[in-house]
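All the exercises in this workshop are built on plain-text protein records. Sequence and backbone structure share a record, each on its own labelled line. The structure tokens are whole numbers drawn from a learned vocabulary of backbone shapes. The record below serves as our worked example for the rest of this section.
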Amino acid sequence: MSEPGSEDFNALIEGREDILISDLAISELVSALTRRRRQGTIAPDLVSRVYRAILMRLVDAPHQRLELTADVHRRAEQLMLAVIDIPLRAADALHVALAMSAGARSLASFDSRLIAAARAIGLATYPR
């Protein structure tokens, strides 16, 4: 299973040790996989295999784990109140708030609203 742009993205992050990730990102990935399973566009056994592979890769990969704290939630809420031109969903605001809390300079996403929100606060984005 390959999403458009995923091979380029994987090549970009391969070997990097400055990757930040949260459990929210993993939960959203599982949500996307199960939505495709319900739609019949992905086999149920593939969903399980992909999920296990992601969890195993997280064990081995060098990355910093970001936690959803009360401060991150308050920052996300302030983003939703301040960024009025972008229909920012709570999960998207939480992703941006996590990046801000960690001092990240960029954010990777294939979601146009999330990219717009990240750009609105000055983060570089991938894909551009």
